[in-house]
Write a structure and sequence with these properties.
Elements (H helix, E strand, L loop, with lengths): L1 H27 L2 E6 L2 E6 L4 H29 L9 H34 L14 H33 L14
Antiparallel strand pairs: 1-2
Helix pairs in contact: 1-2, 1-4, 2-3, 3-4
Length: 181
Amino acid sequence: MELGIQKMEAFLRLSAILVLVLTACLVSFNHQTKVIFYVEKKASFKDLRALIGLVYITSLAAAYNLLQLSCYSFSAWCKGSPLKSHRYLAWFRYVLDQAAVYAVFAGNLVALEHSLLVVTGQKNFQWLKWCDKYTRFCFQIGGSLLCGVVSSLMMAFIASISAFNLFRLYSPKKFLLLKAK
């Protein structure tokens, strides 16, 4: 059972890396140029600060998952390594997985909220609706936000596996007492 969980976690981490990189690439390479009254105007992700933050957050989360995946492959290569059952390392991985999930989820929600303001506009702040003029840009940002939500769900599942790997080291009868070997 333990080998199956490790394989599933490795597959989820690899899938999350691919979806996170896809999200960052879709956001960062997205731009659209329109000519309005003989003036060429360009919409890109750099115009919205939340999208810049999303690119950085998803890139860092992909790098973190790649680092964790390489640690798992290193521990599988060195059979009998103490990396599997060391409780401090399990706590460290658990906390980092939780932080990565929260950061990616928060970055996606901030970008979604900022994109919603771009779609609807805001008369009080004199913000115009961009999606009337830059429809392709808005559809591509929507697709990238969907990929970001999928990656958040994958990382949440990875964090739950990390929690399982941590708390299976402890006794079910006594609070925070390690199981006897």
